[in-house]
């Protein structure tokens, strides 16, 4: 008996740099003090008021099966949020509540692609993207972006990759780079999608974390609402990562089919979690700003620290909770630098190679520890890079 090719080939093989993360976790389990700047987990927990709403809902009896499309009031709240922020009229019929953004990504690709279809995604990429595409039986095809462009995708590169493809997955504000796609970039993406009849899957889970410029949803561009599926989540905007509550926003026809898919896969999201999410969304932008404030503050701290040295340079950190740092001046790959930093200073960062080859020679730093410790760790990283750049590299 053999397992399916689909399940055994979700990943492309190899660690892709994640060995550094696992090594750091082993060190911690052995009692070594490690400063972790690896994954995008808030250093604050879910707001107690959200938890109180969750508790009240559960104790009030909302613990049975919830409606598969989502609680009507929550779908309405998501629709209002999207309408207010994008200007695109959106109703509950355009919204499916999902068990987190990852589930939404899988469902969107299941809707867009048949087995054997080609699905495009951008390199660098969030770690699960290629496996999600392979999970629906599609062929995952990366389109490389460039550090010299601050990882803004070029229209000509997309156009070259698009013929014969069925979908394109983008992420802005971007994990891992912190790039926020410009209007020009998004208009180029829209043109390529229209000219090649591509579905556009837009991961916008960091839309509340923009430090420079403005977030523009491609669904708001002319003629894009019908071909765009937007993925959103409570995880990053409201520090509800463990609650697993997200959504897809798409045309009514798409959502109707996605509801059918959810009926046969996830069977919805627990009602008490949805009620907590509704409370959080009804709290408005003030709460979202509170959740985002530490990352905005640490981004400013990082820019100040980086401006005082010349070895490490940053991709413009326009949004999200990460910095993508160029460490090529050390002569090391991103993975080599991350391992050396962990061994010497017990600071754990993610190699750029963990997110594809476009970010080789970079490391991603998560701004997810308190300000003073974050500043100290970043100064140590820069000092270590300067030390390496000033001496011969020993193999």
UniProtKB/TrEMBL annotation:
Keyword Transmembrane: no
Keyword Transferase: yes
Domain Aminotransferase class I/classII large residues, every copy: 35-379
Domain of life of the source: Bacteria
Membrane spanning stretches: none
Required cofactor(s): pyridoxal 5'-phosphate
Protein name: aspartate transaminase
Organism encoding this protein: Lutimaribacter marinistellae
Lineage: Bacteria, Pseudomonadati, Pseudomonadota, Alphaproteobacteria, Rhodobacterales
């Amino acid at each position: 008996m053999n397992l399916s090719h689909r399940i055994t080939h979700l990943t492309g093989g190899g660690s892709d740099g994640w060995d550094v993360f696992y090594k750091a976790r082993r060190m911690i389990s052995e009692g070594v003090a490690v400063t972790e700047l690896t994954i995008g987990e808030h250093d604050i927990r879910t707001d107690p008021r959200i938890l109180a709403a969750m508790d009240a809902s559960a104790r009030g009896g909302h613990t049975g099966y919830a409606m598969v499309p989502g609680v009507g009031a929550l779908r309405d709240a998501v629709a209002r949020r999207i309408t207010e922020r994008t200007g695109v009229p959106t109703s509950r019929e355009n919204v499916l509540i999902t068990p987190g953004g990852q589930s939404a990504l899988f469902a969107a690709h299941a809707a867009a692609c048949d087995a054997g279809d080609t699905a495009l995604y951008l390199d660098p990429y969030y770690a699960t993207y290629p496996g999600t595409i392979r999970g629906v039986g599609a062929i995952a095809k990366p389109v490389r972006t460039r550090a010299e462009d601050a990882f803004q995708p070029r229209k000509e590169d997309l156009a070259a990759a698009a013929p014969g493809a069925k979908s394109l997955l983008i992420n802005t504000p971007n994990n891992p780079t912190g790039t926020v796609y410009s209007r020009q970039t998004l208009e180029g993406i829209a043109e390529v999608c229209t000219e090649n009849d591509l579905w556009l899957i837009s991961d916008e889970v960091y839309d509340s974390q923009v430090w420079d410029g403005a977030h523009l949803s491609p669904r708001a561009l002319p003629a894009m609402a019908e071909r765009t599926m937007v993925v959103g989540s409570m995880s990053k905007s409201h520090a509800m990562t463990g609650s697993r509550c997200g959504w897809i926003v798409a045309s009514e026809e798409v959502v109707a089919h996605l509801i059918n898919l959810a009926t046969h896969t996830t069977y919805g999201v627990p009602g008490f979690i949805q009620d907590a999410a509704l409370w959080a969304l009804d709290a408005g932008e003030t709460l979202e700003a509170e959740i985002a404030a530490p990352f905005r503050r640490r981004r400013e701290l990082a820019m100040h620290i980086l401006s005082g040295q010349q070895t490490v340079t940053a991709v413009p950190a326009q949004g999200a909770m990460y910095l993508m740092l160029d460490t090529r001046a050390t002569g090391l790959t991103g993975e080599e630098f991350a391992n050396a930093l962990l061994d010497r200073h017990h600071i754990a960062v993610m190699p750029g190679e963990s997110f594809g080859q476009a970010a080789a020679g970079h490391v991603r730093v998560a701004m997810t520890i308190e300000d003073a410790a974050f500043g100290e760790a970043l100064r140590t990283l820069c000092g270590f890079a300067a030390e390496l750049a000033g001496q011969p590299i020993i193999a």
